[in-house]
Amino acid sequence: MADDIKGNPSTPRLTTMLIFVLALFVMLNQSIRTLLGELVGMVLYPLIGFDSQYPLVTLLLAGLLMVTLSIVVRSLFTDYVEQARTQKIMNAFNQELRQARLENNLYKIKKLTEKQQEVMSKSMEMSSQQLKLMPLTLLFIIPIFAWVSVFVADLPSSLISVPWSLEVDLNGVNVLPNWILLYTLVSIPFGQLLTGLIRYLQFKKKVDERKSTVTERI
Fold first, then answer.
1. Residue 193 domain-assigned?
2. Burial letters 34-50, b for 16+ CB under 10 A, else e
3. Is the pLDDT of residue 148 over 50?
4. pLDDT score of 16 more than 80
5. Full-model pTM
6. Is residue 43 within 8 Å of residue 69, measured between CB atoms?
């Protein structure tokens, strides 16, 4: 993967842009979105549709499912330990370069500038890997999102109660449709928590492996 990135760094960016254009087309084209949503609904509606009686619960579960699938798939190809190490190196390098410029240390600035491309390439490599994973996550996001839009449109009643209001119309619009706002409200916090948990498990695994290696040497 690293060789592909170095050989043609524009490829993952171009692929991601094409996928985003396709996703946007699917989301804006009602007939395609409806068709896709109905196909996905054959699986999801019996599982979490609850005969359209608990739309808020359905939105919650759909959001959790979408986030879980996309983040788990992304984590299979992401080394969060190496990612954190690269970020730490970048922060330390930038801090040292800023200090050299404040001190007007021309010799140190020259040396650091010569190494800057090498340090930046590591960060760009990690970013390119994330771009390559974006199409995979969209494979889960787009179909589930399409189904939720069909599910909400077909509700016998789109009025629900939430903690901050006794009556909210899911099809009502406040900048965005209310169902999208609720769906996002569920997805983003849960996604952050799940990503944090997976990172913790990866770090813990790495620490345990090092402890085991040290114990074996002793």
1. yes
2. bebbeebbeebbeebbe
3. yes
4. no
5. 0.72
6. no
